[in-house]
Amino acid sequence: MSQTMILKINLILVLIIDKIKCKQAAGC
Predict the structure, then answer these.
(1) Terminus-to-terminus CA distance in the chain, angstroms?
(2) pTM above 0.70?
(3) Contact 17, 25 (CB under 8 A)
(4) pLDDT tens digits for the chain (28 residues)?
(5) DSSP string covering 1-28, please?
(6) CA 28/CA 15 separation, integer angstroms
(7) Nearest Cα to 11, choosing from 27, 28, 23, 3?
(8) For residue 23, what pLDDT is reported?
(9) Looking at beta carbons, which pairs linking 1-6 to residues 24 or more positions away fall under 8 Å?
């Protein structure tokens, strides 16, 4: 895998994790 692909995947994972944390905490 190239560096750019890894960076894009990491960004997507961070966004997904943030959404999950938001739902658990306050429901956004």
Answers:
(1) 34
(2) no
(3) no
(4) 799 999 999 999 999 999 898 888 776 6
(5) --HHHHHHHHHHHHHHHHHHHHHHHT--
(6) 13
(7) 3
(8) 81
(9) none
- Per the CB < 8 A criterion, the answer to whether 28 and 22 are in contact is yes
Amino acid letter for position 6: I
Q: Centre a 10 Å sphere on the Cβ of residue 28 and count the other Cβ atoms it contains.
A: 8
Q: Which two tokens stand for residue 1?
A: 């895998």
Amino acid type, 3: Q
Report the distance separating Cα 16 and Cα 1, nearest Å: 21
